[in-house]
Amino acid sequence: MALLNVSSSLEFRNQISREIIVYLARARLKDLKETLDPNTAIHQSEKEKSKVADEVETAITQYAQISKVPNFVLEASIFRKPYFCSSFLPTFLTPRPMPDAPDAARANLFVDALHLSGKLPSNMLQKYIELCQKECTENS
Fold first, then answer.
1. Domain coordinates in residue numbering, the chain
2. 123 near 92, Cβ under 8 Å?
3. Among 40, 68, 99, 126, which residue's beta carbon has the most beta carbons within 10 A?
4. CA Rg, the chain, in Å?
């Protein structure tokens, strides 16, 4: 009788483990599908690009007013990560000439704040700085 309890207990644990693995795999596939969605920055319609650009401008304006990363940007970086990484950040990190002193209106302080909060990867920051410096030398 004890052997029957042990084997049924093991079967139950294996069933739970399989269900957890299937759930996690489906969640990951859903994340990947969302990442590969045709609405990424490359394939966005003009209306979607305009909406993202408006959201970026709102974020910059709010940052200039309150001197901290707006809550909706932090929430997007956590709860809408595929959108944040594939649409918001590329639009936000559009190269612009770098002024001598960081200027919130040009979003440079906001860029630094995002980087310091861990929401902007170092490689994206470095690429942004290089592109801005290139833009500055081309405009000079």
1. 1-36, 43-139
2. no
3. 40
4. 22
